[in-house]
């Protein structure tokens, strides 16, 4: 059987050779070509077309959130190994001399950096909850948000589908438990139909998040038992495990409690999100249909407007 690591490397090298990805010298960090971006834009338009009939509120955020937001969300407790923060130089002349000396000797200059209070966004939906909470009680129809942003997770890899910086297109639902259940069922069908229209093989399975440590294993087991997370999986590298390209998450009242979001009935609001990994779907299309979009099946090109 082919070594998965060798298969990841070969696919990455093929993408670089065809100029679709651009090496930046760090595993999991890439530039994108115009061709790659046109596929991403086509996917975004197709995802938007699937969700626009619901008339969601549109929110777009930068790839950073406040460090306090990251703490309040619980992300640092559950995923400290994936989190990233922004540091910057804030010293005086003496500190600058230390920095210059370290640089001239090829040493570690990071000690001259200090936290800025900004964290890198780990998931697109994290910017939504404090905004909705600040508006007061959620109306009877709940809240529905279309959000898109760059995200960061520190998991360097030679697998091109496991990027450290990537984009997520999400729809976020906030309201009652019944509204959440209906939302997730609707989007599981929509996502299946969309990915099938792209000519990609798929499966939808119960999944869990990569919680950290011993306590995290208990959380992951509970998440699976309660079917709180499903993933739409596509085989991107044939010799490797299938890759999660869309996730469907029922948070119960986790973020409702964290941000004191009050549902219309006066209880704590429940939340859910569906997240599309647009880079992963783009890589799946390139893997299954070839590196030249002009040669793809006409039906796939029509869906993406290519």
Automatic annotation (TrEMBL):
* One Pfam family matching this protein: tRNA-synt_2b
- Membrane-traversing stretches: none
How is this protein named in the record? Amino acid--[acyl-carrier-protein] ligase
Q: Which PROSITE patterns match?
A: AA_TRNA_LIGASE_II (PS50862)
Top-level taxonomic group: Bacteria
The EC category is ligase
Every copy of the Aminoacyl-transfer RNA synthetases class-II family profile domain together lies at 151-293
Q: Which organism is it from?
A: Reyranella humidisoli
Q: Which GO terms describe its molecular function?
A: ligase activity
Q: What Enzyme Commission number(s) appear in the record? A: 6.2.1.n2
Keyword vocabulary terms for this entry: Cytoplasm, Ligase, Protein biosynthesis
Q: Which InterPro entries match?
A: aa-tRNA-synt_IIb, aa-tRNA-synth_II
């Amino acid at each position: 059987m082919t070594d998965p690591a060798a298969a990841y490397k070969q696919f990455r090298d093929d993408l670089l050779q065809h100029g679709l990805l651009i090496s930046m010298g760090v595993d999991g960090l890439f530039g994108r070509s115009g061709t790659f971006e046109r596929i991403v834009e086509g996917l975004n338009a197709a995802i938007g077309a699937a969700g626009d009939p619901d008339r969601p509120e549109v929110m777009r955020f930068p790839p950073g959130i406040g460090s306090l937001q990251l703490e309040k969300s619980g992300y640092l407790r559950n995923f400290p190994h994936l989190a990233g923060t922004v540091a910057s130089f804030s010293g005086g002349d003496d500190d600058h001399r230390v920095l210059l000396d370290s640089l001239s000797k090829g040493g570690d200059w990071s000690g001259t950096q200090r936290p800025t209070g900004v964290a890198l966004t780990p998931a697109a939906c994290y910017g939504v909850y404090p905004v909705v909470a600040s508006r007061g009680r959620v109306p009877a129809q709940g809240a529905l948000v279309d959000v898109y942003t760059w995200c960061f997770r520190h998991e360097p890899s030679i697998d091109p589908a496991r990027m450290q910086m990537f984009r997520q297109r999400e729809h976020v639902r906030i309201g009652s438990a019944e509204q959440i259940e209906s939302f997730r069922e609707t989007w599981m069908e929509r996502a299946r139909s969309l990915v099938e229209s792209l000519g990609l093989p798929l499966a939808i399975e119960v999944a869990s998040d990569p919680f950290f440590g011993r306590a995290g294993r208990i959380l992951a087991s509970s998440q699976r038992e309660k079917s709180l997370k499903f993933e739409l999986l596509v085989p991107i590298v044939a010799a490797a495990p299938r890759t999660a390209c869309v996730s469907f998450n029922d948070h119960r009242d986790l973020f409702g409690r964290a941000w004191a979001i009050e549902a219309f009935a006066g209880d704590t609001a429940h939340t859910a999100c569906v997240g599309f990994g647009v880079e992963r779907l783009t890589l799946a299309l390139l893997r299954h249909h070839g590196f030249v979009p002009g040669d793809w099946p006409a039906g796939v090109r029509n869906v993406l407007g290519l």
